[in-house]
Amino acid sequence: MTKKFNEIYQNSIKNPEEFWLEASDNIFWFKKPSKILNKSNPPFYKWFEDGVTNTCYNALDIHIDQGNGKRTALLYDSPITGNKNKFSYEQLKSKVSKFAGALNSQGVSKGDRVIIYMPMIPEAVIAMLACARIGAIHSVVFGGFASNELASRIDDSKAKILVTASCGFEPGRTVEYKPLVDEAIKQAKHKIDKMILFQRPGHEVTLNAPKEVSWEEIVSNAKETDCVEMNSNEFAYILYTSGTTGTPKGIVRDIGGHIVALKWTMKNIYNINEGDIWWSASDIGWIVGHSYIVYAPLFKGCTTVLFEGKPVGTPDAGAFWKIISDYKVKSLFTAPTAFRAIKKEDPEGKFFSKYDLSKFESLFLAGERADPDTIKWAENLLKVPVIDHWWQTETSWAISSNCTGIEMMKTKYGSACKAVPGYDVKVIKSDKTLAKPNEMGDIVVKLPLPPGTFPTLWRADQRYKENYMSSYEGYYQTYDAGHIDEDGYIWIMSRTDDIINVAGHRLSTGAIEEVLSEHQSVAECAVLGIADKLKGQLPIGLVVLKAGVDKDNKIISKECVKMVRDKIGPVAAFKVVIVIKRLPKTRSGKILRGTIRKIADNVEYKMPPTIDDPTILSEIKQDLIKNNILKNE
Ligand code: COA
Ligand code: AMP
């Protein structure tokens, strides 16, 4: 049944260079690459080494050259502000090349870093593409991160310029960006040259010239600028993601491989053609937003929807159906949590029945495990295929998926389908041998990774090698665990590090622990991701106080919650801290986080043989019951 897919897949694994050479023919090159893959220095592989191209040219100019300049490139819809707008490829190119000129006028040139900290407005997309146009490396920071996180990204990237807006809108509150940015600039050791701020109408803020300039002002004096020729292995962007400590990892994307791979995915994975209307309901601050709000749909010449809203509360649980119906969206890509939120508010789909979704063909889910109940609920309601696919910030595109543009495969609920062409996925057991079908282990990908994946970490080659490429020689360690079944379907079960997934957002429990440890009354702590019906996981903190502290526990909990919100940001969704007497540990002093998590999730657990004092576990259980985390049965 999957003959065509199997043939293409096998070919991509056996002859990767031929496979990606063919795909590379579909993009614009100033100079075509003569070398497809340089394997001389593993694990650092180079795709299309001597090719010369430009990301922005492939996103915009190419479509105008091909006579499609009048086609709509971007549809913007903001249910909170009531604003809507649309841009043809020609109009978007004009805005982008003007802002590129403005960046130039502020001293930004090829290789400089530009931080973009913005809400979901067209100017954010324009800023990203403008950087690409002049060869500057953008680093977009999600608006839900606090100043401290923004400061660490300014420091690590050594950005020259920061682009922001006066505010963003969350349901029920306005997020004032300027004070957050001011604080980040104050905290950062590296000093940026300038802040460019887009004044949202009706929410203008005061700027302190000459270091702070308004978007409108610099654009009004700018000249349109052409695309700069870029070597394939220069970097398009840095996207920081949670690592196992508080120091985020700068995932970098090189230029040629990114364009080739992402363009290939639109047809082959998503069955999307030139001119189709595509919507990714994510945020440009995440990898899904980078790849599937901005780059891939524009490389393919589609119309992409930019939605500044939420699945519920903007204004109701019909918001997604309205967008799909108003813009005749063909396919939607979002995180399962968005559908769980809609299902919670409107389980019978009453809002759904008000809209015409006759043009809608498929729903793609990723970012966290898609639970079978949610998939089945969505299938019943939408009557279209609902496809779970698995990927990571590191890869920028799906590692496993139903490749609907090649051949539709059957759904196995709970599995993220098969490895996508380009990825040779294996499972390795704890004894370091390859697993047989259905045996659990670490999920790894045989090197080299395909184009578009991360060639290294920003200025951290050694960290790249040690973190990802050293556990199993010749393999990339995904830090996901699971199994592959007898039909080649991949089942992602859990992370093997301390990353948790909260509403499709990737967070490090280690980073939250670092913040809690800074509280002056806290002696030690553990942060766990516990199961949550809406967000998949939610972090909770357990803290042990220093001897002699006699402050009210409730005050300490509140202070801890506030510290995490202030240091990491509201996105951590960190609301629960429980003061406990002691933490369960092994005799060698390791905190038994896995066991506590099982107790909190009310699933069976074995008494760890190495535990120093088994009575602590029943104490913790009582504490969780007292704090309504666990029901008393
Ligand atoms: N700027 C500032 N704050 C933000 C923000 C942003 N861009 N995005 C989220 N936040 C804030 C929220 O307002 C909330 O703050 P609060 O504690 O004051 O209420 C907090 O961060 C947590 O946000 P979130 O986890 O998104 O929870 P929510 O209750 O606001 O919304 C969902 C829940 C399910 C509706 C929402 O997570 C969602 O739409 N998810 C869709 C999936 C998605 O986008 N995934 C991204 C990867 S694909
Ligand atoms: P991020 O880098 O933020 O995209 O998060 C990547 C992580 O999200 C992966 O390593 C997985 O743990 C999880 N993830 C993403 N997609 C899926 C999926 N379809 N099924 C299960 N887990 C997923």
Largest sheet: 7 strands, mixed
What CATH calls the topology of the largest domain is Rossmann fold
Q: Please state the CA-atom Rg, rounded to the nearest Å.
A: 24 Å
**CATH C-level class of the largest domain:** Alpha Beta
Which secondary structure elements does this structure contain, and how are they paired or packed?
Blueprint: H1 3-14, H2 16-24, E1 37-41, E2 44-47, E3 52-53, H3 55-65, E4 72-78, E5 83-88, H4 89-105, E6 113-117, H5 122-134, E7 137-140, H6 147-157, E8 161-165, E9 167-170, E10 173-176, H7 177-187, E11 194-198, E12 212-214, H8 215-220, E13 230-231, E14 235-241, E15 249-254, H9 255-268, E16 277-280, H10 287-300, E17 303-307, H11 319-327, E18 331-334, H12 336-345, E19 362-365, H13 372-382, E20 386-388, E21 400-401, E22 418-419, E23 425-428, E24 441-446, H14 461-468, E25 475-484, E26 490-495, E27 499-502, E28 505-508, H15 509-517, E29 522-532, E30 536-545, H16 553-567, E31 576-580, H17 593-600, H18 615-626
Parallel strand pairs: 4-17, 6-7, 6-8, 8-11, 11-12, 16-17, 16-18, 18-19, 19-20, 30-31
Antiparallel strand pairs: 1-2, 3-13, 4-5, 9-10, 14-15, 21-22, 23-24, 24-25, 25-26, 27-28, 29-30
